[in-house]
Amino acid sequence: MPSFLRRAPPPPTNEECISLWNVDAMLRIKVLWATYVNVRDVDKIYVKTGIFHGTEPLCPTQDTSQVVFSNPKWEEWLEYDLFVPDIPRSARLCLSVCSVSRRKRREEHCAIAWGNINLFDYKDRLLSDRVSVHLWAMPKGMDELLNPIDTTGSNPNRDSPCLVLEFERFSSTVVFPTMGEIEEYANFVSKIEVQEESKRMPSEAASEFETLKEIIERDPLSEISEQEKELLWRLRRECMVIPDSLPKLLEAVKWNSRDEVAQMYMLFKEWPQVSPEVALELLDCKYADKIVRDHAVLWLNSGLTDDLMSQYLLQLVQVIKYESYYDNNLAKLLIRRALSNRKIGHFFFWHLKSEMHEPSVATRFGLMLEAYCRGVGSHLKSIVRQVEALEKLTKLTDILKARKDETQKERLKFLYEQVQQADYLEALQNFPSPLNNNHVLGNLIVEDCKILDSAKRPLWLVWLNPDPMAECLFKCNSIIFKNGDDLRQDMLTLQVIRIMDSIWQNEGLDMRMMPYACLATGKEVGMIEVVRNAKTVMNIQRKGGRMAAFQVDSTQLHKYIKEKNKGFRYDQAIETFTQSCAGYCVATFILGIGDRNPDNIMVNEEGQIFHIDFGHFLGHFKKKFGINRERVPFVLTEDFLYVIAKGAENPKKSKEFQSFMQLCGKAYLMLRRHANLLITLFIMMLSTGITRIAIYE
């Protein structure tokens, strides 16, 4: 039944409530029993629990006693060192069922399944009575026994392990205090603190302010000591002079102290607007508080142009996963901006759609997709056409992968026969490109389509450009469709390269970058733009004969560029090559991109060089027999130097090479000034589960 026909919920009852701050008790939770816990070869099992605010534990963890796995019953109250009035609004109970195995006189503890529950519901009510939680399987490679940054709520799979808990019942429903109560309490606490602050010496305050500035300037991954946190909190009003210091100050707040939380809320009423980059940082999993996240959304709405929103959309969709409830201001902002700008809406749709196979986000993302599709009007037809085309291509590549025993010629014949059938032609022609909603993919040029040489059978597809001005623009659109490869890492790398290019452009430096389009559209399904008139360095070298492929002849690349660019265009092509080579040297160095070879570096006819295939990044390099195969921080081979030096005999002594090195240094320093933004973008992608960024490194 569609949502607009469902019965509306009954009106709320006038239940009696008491404020959380009027409860005089320590937090305690009863673990009753577990069901569907299927384990073998373990001695005992137990339940580990912790109360977290974001990534920060609010008190020591508590464990149940260990019981035999065949009878997982505890009926045991766990008491936490946390006063009920000190529980913050966004606190969550994190728990896991753990196994204990004895191996050679030592115990091995392993988490079997995990779950997280918000301690307050969306109406600000503290949980009470009995609750059943279906748990999730532990992520691969995760060593910790609790998983506080992942989703809250039950696993929809009812065959998963289930824990039954009991929360304490109070005389009335316990609710989080109103802003009026918080303000009154904050004023009371502030008066006491003002009296103590007046005793400090002026000279002491001056030296502390210098230390404060040094702490604020650190990058988002830097640790802050307890002593530094105390200093930040003591000088919190001074921090307002530097609005972008807010993330550091929030790390200093003791979230298990209502005194500090109440005062922090009052500071927010006066806090100046932060930069969009810092507002992005405030949506990370560390900053769980609703007031903090709502202010970040407010600042993003006023600080992000549509271009910047498009630039950061990939991360903004990911951090929706850190919101405690489906109904939140970040989701509303994204839906609103997606409906008011077609480009934002296009990629908003695909970023959500690409993760609908994940049970942990399917309900949340499904609701957002429904809201977007209901509001988008006639554009919905265009979206449906794209989805239908991709479903056809996925089905086709599944069949091709299953035909393992056939020759390439037989598979190609099958491809041609399939795509010329009426249902395929109808689905695969005259629809907007998922890579760029401004481009329409016209008639399929069947004879130019091919199956690339890979076990996953990626398709090289070519469409005519139906635009009347196609002769002046481009005649064809070529796209690689992949089914079986996770394109999210490539998509993230290309997005960050695009942002690097934007930083350089804004500072007046054109590095002639080529961050081609790449889009993940489903589980290990996606599309990659084919750059026109470009060849791999390996293919160019092969034209120089067999030995050239082994880089014996380092002049071949220079010959290719010279041949394609006659007269005055030659100097332009060399300049383009030099700028783009410098840009990619710096970008691949900063991103720690490995596995660089002539097969994944390309050059187009204008001399523009660019990298493809980013399977190894952030310093995760290929190894062989335990030995790191990456010998250099970035690729700058003899044939590249020969082009930069315009064919000079000793390239490294040429003035062109000296200029190239200066350009690299200048480009690097520009990005260094924006290091916090680049770090934030990767941190915001932690929730994707991409192996290379699955942990803080």
UniProtKB/TrEMBL annotation:
GO terms for cellular component: cytoplasm; phosphatidylinositol 3-kinase complex; plasma membrane. It comes from the Eukaryota. Residues 198-375 form the PIK helical domain. It is an enzyme of class 2 (transferase). It catalyses: a 1,2-diacyl-sn-glycero-3-phospho-(1D-myo-inositol) + ATP = a 1,2-diacyl-sn-glycero-3-phospho-(1D-myo-inositol-3-phosphate) + ADP + H(+). Residues 23-177 form the C2 PI3K-type domain. Keywords: ATP-binding, Kinase, Membrane, Nucleotide-binding, Transferase, Transmembrane, Transmembrane helix. GO terms for biological process: cell migration; phosphatidylinositol 3-kinase/protein kinase B signal transduction; phosphatidylinositol-mediated signaling. The chain crosses the membrane at residues 675-695. SUPFAM superfamilies: ARM repeat, C2 domain (Calcium/lipid-binding domain, CaLB), Protein kinase-like (PK-like). One of its GO terms (molecular function) is 1-phosphatidylinositol-3-kinase activity. Pfam families: PI3_PI4_kinase (PF00454), PI3K_C2 (PF00792), PI3Ka (PF00613). InterPro entries: ARM-type_fold (IPR016024), C2_domain_sf (IPR035892), Kinase-like_dom_sf (IPR011009), PI3/4_kinase (IPR015433), PI3/4_kinase_cat_dom (IPR000403), PI3/4_kinase_cat_sf (IPR036940), PI3/4_kinase_CS (IPR018936), PI3K-type_C2_dom (IPR002420). Its EC number is 2.7.1.137. Residues 445-697 form the PI3K/PI4K catalytic domain. Belongs to the PI3/PI4-kinase family. This is Phosphatidylinositol 3-kinase catalytic subunit type 3. The lineage of its organism: Eukaryota, Metazoa, Ecdysozoa, Arthropoda, Chelicerata.
